[in-house]
Design a protein that fits this description.
3 helices
């Protein structure tokens, strides 16, 4: 009997404390941030690499020596297969030359 009384008293105390525990402040909301990286097609990746090479080549200093100096590899070209890399570089070189001629 004593055990039942203590259990009932404990349950009643728990309910009383829980029932009176309301707050005027709303519960905090959970914010979930999702970052989506756009996926480029192979053609879009190639074009982005060509444009990045054109920008890199155009940014060369005046005393750049193609026989001795090297260009940094653009980050946009990381996904380009090695077999296509020279073609993409040459397309970037031609685009850089075209931009230079168009700017005249």
């Amino acid at each position: 009997m004593r055990r039942t009384t203590l259990t009932a008293l404990g349950a009643g105390l728990l309910l009383a404390l829980t029932g009176c525990g309301t707050s005027d402040q709303p519960a905090p909301t959970v914010t979930v941030t999702v970052t989506v990286t756009p996926t480029l097609s192979a053609a879009e990746q190639r074009q982005a690499c060509v444009e990045a090479w054109a920008d890199t080549i155009a940014a060369r200093p005046d005393d750049f020596d193609p026989e001795a100096d090297t260009d940094p590899d653009p980050d946009a070209c990381n996904a380009i297969p090695e077999a296509d890399y020279l073609d993409v570089y040459m397309d970037g070189l031609m685009l850089s030359n075209k931009r230079g001629l168009d700017a005249r």
